[in-house]
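With this grant's support, we have settled on a layout for protein records. A representative record follows, to show the layout.
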Amino acid sequence: MTRKTAATVGKPTALPVGYAGIHGGIVELLDAARSVNNLESMRRFFIL
């Protein structure tokens, strides 16, 4: 087991290049899925 020194305990880890772009794309996909789900729920409400 490795021992963490005081210098490494509070240090943030570096994210891979392109992580922000991938994360942003995933967030956009989730938002789109929520929008579609909301539209489908509204459609069911008004048809019933």
